Amino acid sequence: MGIKVYNTLTRRLEDFEPFEGNFVKMYVCGPTVQDVAHLGHARTYIAFDAIIRFLEYKGYRVFYVRNITDVGHIREESGRDRILEGAERERLEPMELVDKYMLMFFEDMDALKLRRPNVQPRATMHILDMIEMIKALIEKGYAYEVDGNVYFDVSKFPDYGKLSGIKYEELIKHRIEPDPRKRNPADFALWKKAEKGYLLKWPSIWGEGFPGWHIECSVMSMKYLGPQIDIHGGGQELILPHHENEIAQSEAFTGKKPFVKYWLHTGYLTIAGEKMSKSLGNFVTIREVLKKYDADAIRFFVLSSHYRSNIDYNEEAIKRAADAVERVKSTLRELYYEKEDARAGDDEIASNVCAEMKRRFVEAMEIDFNTPQALSVLHELIRKANAYLSSKTITSAGIDAYYNTILELCNSVGLLQDFKPETEISNLTASGVLQILLSVREELRKRGMYDLSDRIRESLKEIGILIEDTKEGQRVRLKK
Questions:
Q1: Closest Cα partner for 137 from 215, 236, 30?
Q2: Closest residue by Cα to residue 272 from 287, 286, 285, 282
Q3: DSSP letter string over 49-117?
Q4: Buried (b) or exposed (e) across 403-440, using 16+ Cβ within 10 A?
Q5: Taking a C-beta distance cutoff of 8 angstroms, is the pair 52, 230 a contact?
Q6: Contact 305, 77 (CB under 8 A)
Q7: Does residue 47 register a pLDDT over 70?
Q8: Residue 153 in contact with residue 183, Cβ under 8 Å?
Q9: Which residue among 40, 76, 298, 381 is least packed, with the fewest CB closer than 10 Å?
Q10: Cα distance between residue 65 and residue 216, in whole Å
Q11: Within a domain: 299
């Protein structure tokens, strides 16, 4: 079965058929780098990372572009550029602020073990390209200049609203740039005149100014991916006006439809049912969460919900995700170390079980990247692997089948990318934790509490650490 994706544009599941065979051109809207990234950003970028990895697992080649917005993103409440507001808050030059938080964002994405985009273009590095596109839109009759401001004439683009479903009369409510000189209240800015003293400005044929927020993504996606792309992603809050405006200005500029074949949008990350947002002050930074949980726990938490669904963040939910990841790792460790004692030979039953689990996992992912259903299959596979380990019929081939299938499916969505059981055990022995456990066992044995002492020994055996009690004391060796 081939992959099916839910297309926001058509509001239905569609067969995934890229423009150029198995080559996928993908653009995801990146952050406005005026502050440290929070878990809401992680929710979106982890979801798209899992999608990219699964596409590559299925044999597609993905060329991935994610932009950096460092100018032009106007805050609704103040009508001011977010970068300038951040620079004033921290008493930095605008580009000092941008460089600071852009580098922190890159570090956060690496810490979450996200695949790096092929290109990460900055808006300010493409101002001349934006000016050229705006000039062309004016020449084609889709845009007009008013006293140094350039607006896109929405009335000239009959398809406006096809992504969001909004009616023309409702558009006025979504415009944050009132100007009585506009032809239509719903027209949006392509270029804004810079008032006296405004720091972020560039020369143009219309005078000094700066680009509107929406033009950057059209320019950068077309520069690196061409006039038509396969997948455009972002949070659902970007559907209107940002993505709606991208469609209008891009298709007006190129004359080609569709600008994007498949529009994919992620749901919100919420806290107590309210969207996580810097403006609301209810956010948790990626760095804060990474102090308590690793990247796999955060990814498992995100993938436990469908990418189009909202996720409510709470400590219990991410703790459950961390526990689930540990169960997977524990099973893999036990499989790895039990192989030494397993008898040789094939195991057709184990191979068939693993093949069936893999088929069900892949089928779940092929239907609009249904990660919660896929993880449910993974949980079932873990239970079957543990039952197999408890049986009297384990073989090295059967253990290989379970181990390789579990790790393959995890890797297909970006989980356990660096998992190596032998390294984990070495880290444990080097950390001093093992010595503490040995001291506890010694004290328990002195007090005659042999049951507890034996339980510690058996638990360590499950992760490949063998303890032998001798007259000289405890002898430790790693199971090879």
A1: 215
A2: 282
A3: HHHHHHHHHTT-EEEEEE-BB-S--B-TTT-SBHHHHHHHHHT--HHHHHHHHHHHHHHHHHHTTPPPP
A4: bebbbebbebbbbbeebebeeebeebeeeeebeebbee
A5: no
A6: no
A7: yes
A8: yes
A9: 76
A10: 13
A11: no
Q: Domain range spanning residue 348?
A: 324-419
> Last residue of a domain, which of 403, 419, 435?
419
The count of residues in the chain is 480
Statement to judge: residues 89 and 238 lie in one domain = yes
- State both tokens at 113: 């073990």
280 compared with 352, residue with greater pLDDT: 352
How far CA 387 is from CA of 136, 146, 382, in Å, comes to: 66, 73, 9
Give 291-323 pLDDT, tens digit per residue: 999 999 999 999 999 999 999 999 999 999 999
Q: Where are the alpha helices (DSSP H) in 368-472?
A: 371-390, 396-412, 421-431, 433-446, 450-462
Contacts of 42 (CB under 8 A, 6+ apart): 108, 112, 269, 286, 289, 298, 302
Whether 477 shows a pLDDT value over 70: the answer reads: no
Q: Which residue, chain included where needed, has tokens 């990626």?
A: 286
**283 inside domain:** no
Distance CA 316, CA 322 (A): 10
Flag whether 258 is in a domain.
yes
- Compute the distance between CA of residue 133 and CA of residue 219 in angstroms, rounded to an integer: 7
Among 343, 338, 378, 374, which residue's Cα sits nearest to residue 479?
A: 338
Residue 40: name the closest of 176, 235, 329, 264 by CA: 235
Sheet holding 23-28, edge to edge: 61-66, 23-28, 229-235, 260-266
Same domain, 407 and 462: no
The DSSP line for 117-182 is: PSB--BGGGGHHHHHHHHHHHHHTTSEEEETTEEEE-GGG-TTTTTTT---GGGGGGG-----TTS
CA dihedral 321, 325, 331, 332 (to 10 degrees): 160
Distance CA 217, CA 130 (A): 10
Read off the pLDDT of each residue in 427-454 and give the average, rounded to a whole number. 82
CA distances to 95, 116, 126 from 110, in Å = 22, 8, 25
Do 411 and 368 belong together in one domain?
yes
